[in-house]
Amino acid sequence: MGPEVHSASTQRLVDNLSAKLRRRQIVGSRAAALETLLVLRQIVSKARFSNIDQLVEIIRNAGRQLVEAQPKEHTVGNTVRKVLHHIREEYNTATNGGALAQPRSAFSIAKFLVQGQPRQQNVALKSSDNKQPLKENDADDPDSFAKGLKPVLMEAIQDVLDELETVYDNVSKNAKDHIHSDEIILTLGMSRTVEAFLKSAAHHRNYTVIVAETGPSYSGHDMGKALSSSGISTFLVPDSSIFALMSRVNKVIIGAHAILANGGIFAVSGSLLAATAAREHSTPIVVCAGQFKFTPLWNLYHEYGALDFGDPSNVLGFEEGDLVDKVDVVNPYYDYVRPELIDVFITNYGDHPPSSIYRLIKETYDDEDIEL
Amino acid sequence: MPPKQSNPKDPLISDDDEVLQAVILSDSFNKRFRPLTRRKPRCLLPICNAPLLDWTLESLALAGVQEIFVICRSYATQVKAALSKSKWSAPNSGIKITPIMTAKETFSPGDAMRDIYTRGLLTSDFVLVYGDLVSNIRIDDVVRVHKERRKANKDAIMTMVVKEAGIGHRTRSRGESSVFVLDPETSECLHYEPVMGYPRKSVARIPREVVAAHPRIEIRNDLIDCQIDVCSVEVPSLFQDNFDYGDIRRDFVHGVLTSDLLMKNIHCYIAKEGYAARVQDTRSYDSVSKDILSRWTFPMVPDNNHPADHAYEHIRGNKYIPKDNSVVLARTCKIGPKSLIGPSSSCSEDTTISSSVIGANCVIGPRSTISNAYIFDNTVIGADCVIDRSIVGSNVQVKDGSRIEQGCLVGDGVVVGPGAVLMPFERLMKKDDEGEDANEGDDEDEDEEDSDEEDLEEYQKNVKSVLGKDANALVWPRGPPEDEDDEDEENVENFTNQRFMRLGDDHSDLNSDSSADSSTDNSDSDSDSDTESVTSVATSTSASHVPTTPTIAVPSSAAVAEYEFRVEAKQSLERAFAEGHSVDNAAVELKTLRMASNVPLSRVREAVVGAIVERIKIGGEVAEQRKEIASVVSRWGELINKIGGVDAVETIAALQFHCAGSDRLPLFGQILAALYQEDIVEEEDIRAWHALPASEGAEVLPGLEADNIKKCWAVGERMIQQFDEQESSEEEDGGETDEGEGTTEGEGTTEEGTTEDESEEDSD
Hints:
The complex is a heterodimer of chains A (372) and B (764).
Chain A: H1 8-22, H2 29-46, H3 52-69, H4 74-96, H5 101-104, H6 112-116, H7 144-165, H8 167-172, H9 175-178, E1 184-188, H10 192-202, E2 208-212, H11 220-229, E3 233-237, H12 242-246, E4 251-255, E5 258-260, E6 265-268, H13 271-280, E7 285-288, E8 294-295, H14 321-326, E9 334-337, E10 344-347, E11 350-352, H15 357-364
Parallel strand pairs in A: 1-2, 1-4, 2-3, 4-7, 5-8, 7-10
Antiparallel strand pairs in A: 5-6, 6-9, 10-11
Chain B: E1 21-25, E2 46-47, E3 50-51, H1 52-62, E4 67-72, H2 76-85, E5 96-101, H3 109-119, E6 126-130, E7 133-135, H4 139-152, E8 156-164, E9 176-182, E10 188-196, H5 208-213, E11 218-220, E12 223-231, H6 234-241, H7 248-258, E13 265-271, E14 276-278, H8 282-293, E15 312-315, E16 319-322, E17 328-329, E18 334-335, E19 339-341, E20 346-347, E21 352-354, E22 357-358, E23 363-364, E24 369-371, E25 374-375, E26 380-381, E27 386-388, E28 391-392, E29 397-398, E30 403-405, E31 409-410, E32 415-416, E33 427-430, H9 446-459, E34 473-475, H10 495-499, H11 508-511, H12 515-527, H13 531-545, H14 556-579, H15 583-597, H16 601-615, H17 622-640, H18 648-660, H19 668-677, H20 683-691, H21 704-728, H22 737-752
C-alpha cells in the first residue's frame, strides 16, 4: 500500500493509530475522528507532492489503512473523505480562482434556509486576493506546488478540526426551539451531544428528562448524573419501562454512532426498542449528532455483522461457569434504527429529515472517495 | 457509543519513563500436545487460525508492553524465524522483540529463569507469561498496582494474575488447578497449594501461622490461574539462589510462601474485567477456542484485530467467514454456530460444521460432519467423514468414509482411510521416511524419537483402530507407558492426571468415586469468606497441628520426618544444655533443624518445652525443687519464644501434654508458675489456655492420660482462682503477691501429684 511518498515518520503515525483503533484503545466516534484528523494533518504537512493526485493518493492510502484497521468506527473514513473533499475544493479555488467551486455549493440543501434570507457576504468572499494560479508539475521546482498549496490546506484541515471541536455547541445552539417548557424528554445512554443539547435547552426551558439505564453498559447512569448535576429534573428508569412510559413522553432525543445515507442510524443498543415504542405512540424521535457522523453507507440489507459486537462479560459474567459453556451470549454495542422511525436530525449544519441525508452526504464528500 | 473499555491514558506516554518489559517462555516444558508438536513447538500451533505466540504477543501489545524477550528452547530456530517474520518485528510496531536461545539443558521454567538471570536482561519489574497465553487483561494496570505496592513494601516481589471462574468452568483446568489462600484486604497470597485431578486431593493444609496472623482469610479454589506474573527483578535471582526451583507455581510460589528465611510476599490480582487463559493442554485448546469464538477475548476476535491479520466477517451465531470471498460454501452445506472457516477453504454439498475451526486451504468433502473439531491448514477431508472432538493437524488427508471421534489427535501430514475408524483418544503420527528428519539437528527430542520408532512399529500389531489401506500413520501407544509404571504419582504429568487435560475426555469414571466429597472439601465450603466459615477452618487446621488430634492421616514420610526431627531436636537440646550454649545459638540450631525436616512450629515448641521439663531434676525438698525449676526456667525458658514465633497458649498446652505423659506431672504447676515469673507466659495466656476445650482433655480418649490432663487443668484452674483473688486484694499487697502465688501453687501440686507411669504421649 504505502508508496514511496510515505515517509517513515508518517507511516509510524498511521501504524500507531491503526493499532490503537484495532485494539479499541480509541473508541467513540468523535475521539476517532479527532485522532484521524490529527494524523492527516501531520501527513499533509510532511507530504511531498508535485500535483494534486499525488497528495490525494497519499491521504487515501493512509485513510484506507485506518479504515481497514477499524471498519466499525465509521467516522475515521468520514474524516478522511471530508479532508479529501476540502483539499480538492481548495485546490480548485487555488488553480481556477474559485470559478469551479462556486456553482457547486449554490444550491446546497445545507444552506437551503439561508438562501431564502438576504445575502450579505456571498459575493465579496472569494475575490479578495486574486493571486496567480498555482502551477502543477513544475519541472524546475517540483516543491513549488506543495509549498503554495500547503498553507491553504492546513487552513482547511484546521477548519475541520474547529468544526469537530465546536460540534456540541453548534448542535445545541437551537436547542430551545426544539424543547418546550414542561415537556418530558426520553433519552438513552450517554451521548455527549445529547447531553450538551439538553443542558443548553435547560438555560431557557424548564423540563423533565427520563433517562433509560441502557443495559448492558448502563451508560444511562452517567447521563442521569450529568443532567441532574446541572439542575435538570431527571429520572433514571430501567430499560424495561420504556414502553410503559412512552405515552407520557413528548419527545425522544437520542444520539447516534453513525448516520447512514438512507437516513437510518447506528445508535447505542436499546435505541431500536425506544424508537419502535415511540413510533407506536407517535412520539417524535429526534437524533442529535454532528455532521462528521454522516456515513456514505446505505445498509439496505441490514447485515448482522455491520453492528459491533463486544465481549459478553457485561451481559453474563465469565465466572458463571456452567452457563458460559451452554449459552451463547451476544453483546451488540449498536442497534440499527431504520429511517422510517426517525423524524428529524439535528446537526451542526441545521435540521434535516432522514430523506435528505443522502443529499447532504453527496455534498459533504466527493463521489470518488466513497470507496477509499 | 461503546463503553470506554480502555483507560484513556496512553501506556506509551505514562508518567514513568521505564520501559515495560515482558518475558515469554515459549516452551511449555511438557508434551501434552504430541504428536501435533512433533515438528513444531506448541507456541506455533494455530488457534483460531493464528499461531498461539501471535495471540500472546498481541495480548502483551494490548497491555502496552514495549520490550519482549522470548525464551526459545525446543525448535528454537522455528520460533525465531516466526518471530522475525511476524508483524511485531516491523520497525513501526512499537515493540522490541528479542529471541533468546536457551540451552537444551533448560528443562523447566526455573532453568529458564536462571538463564534470564545470568544474562542480566531485565532492568525493572517485568511481566512473565507463557507462549500460549490468550488474554485481554490490562496488564499495565496490574503492573501499576504492583509498583504501588512495591513502594510501600519492598518484599512484595510478585503479583499473580488470576481470574474468577465458577466450578466446572470449561476454561479452568481440572488437571492442574490450585488453592489460593488470600488476605481479602491486601490480596496477599498467604498460601498456595497445587491441586491435581488425579490423585484427587481432599485436604488442603493451611499453616497455622497463616490463620493466626490474619483475622480474615479467603480460601479459593475457583480461580483460573492465568500464569501472568508481574515479577520484580529479584525473582530471577531467587531462582538462581534456589537451584531446585523448577515450576513457577509448585516450587517457586510454594517455596517463597513457606520459607521463613526469605520473608518475601506474593500477591494476587483478581482480574475483575478481561479474559485470560493459557492453552496448556488439548482440553483448554478446545475451551479457549470456544472463548475466542464467543468473543470473550474482545477486542481480539476473528473479525477484529485477528493476530494473523485475517479479515473475517461476523455472522449471526458467532460464525466467521473470510471477508475476501475466497471460501467456497456449497448451497446445501450447513455451518453451525461458533464456527470459523479459514481463507480459501471449501465445503462441499451437505457438509455440516458446528463449533469447529477449519484452517486455510482446507477441503471438506460432501456429506461430511465436523463438530467440535479443529482442523489445521491445507487439510483435505473426503466424503462421508465424521470428525468429532478431535484435532487434525495440517496437510492431513482423511479419505472417504473415515471416522475420527472423541479426542483423537492426528499429526501433521498423516494420511488415513478410506474407511478408517479411529478408537477414541487415538494419537496418530506420520510414519517417517528415513532421512527426512536428519536435518532437524536442533530437535532435542529427536534421538528419543528414533528409539521409540521401533517400539511403535511393534505396537502397531495390537492397534484396534482401522487405518485404511492408504494410511501412512503410526498409532501411538495408549494408556500409561509400561516402562514408567513406577512413575511418581505426585507429578502433574502422570497418566491419569493427563486424562483431565485431554480433549473430549469427560473422565466420568474418575469422578464417580469421590465427586461428592471433593466438591464439598475443596470448592464449596472453602470458597466462602464470611467469618463464620473462616473460624471453622481455623479451628480445624489448628487442631490438626496441636498434638492432640491425629485424625488427619499424615503421609508416612511426614511421620518419619517428624520422628527424626524429634530425636534430633532432643539431641541438639541436650547438647546445648550440656555444653552451655547461649540461648540464641540453640535457637538457630533448632530453626535449621526445623527447615531441614519441614515440621510445623508447634512441634518445635513441644520439643523445647519437653526438653526443658526433662532437664529439671526431680527430688529434694519442696524449696530445693522450686529453686531447681526456677534456675532451669530462667536459664532456658527464653528459648521457647526464640524458636521462630511466640504463642504462649500453645506453650502451656505443650507443657500440659508433656507433663501428662511424663513422671514430672507433679511439677506442672511449679513450672507454669516459673514460666509466669519469667514473663514467658502471661496471666491472659493461662486463662486462654484454660478456656480451650482441648486443655480439659476433651479430645483425648478417656484413660490415664486424660486424667492427668484433667489434673493439670485443675491446677491451672486453681492458679486462675488465685489470680482472681489477687486482683481483688491487689490494693493491699502490691508486688509481693507473685512469689506467694508461686509457693502456694507449688505446694498444691505436690500434694495432689501422684506419680504416674508414662503413658505414651498421644501420637499421630
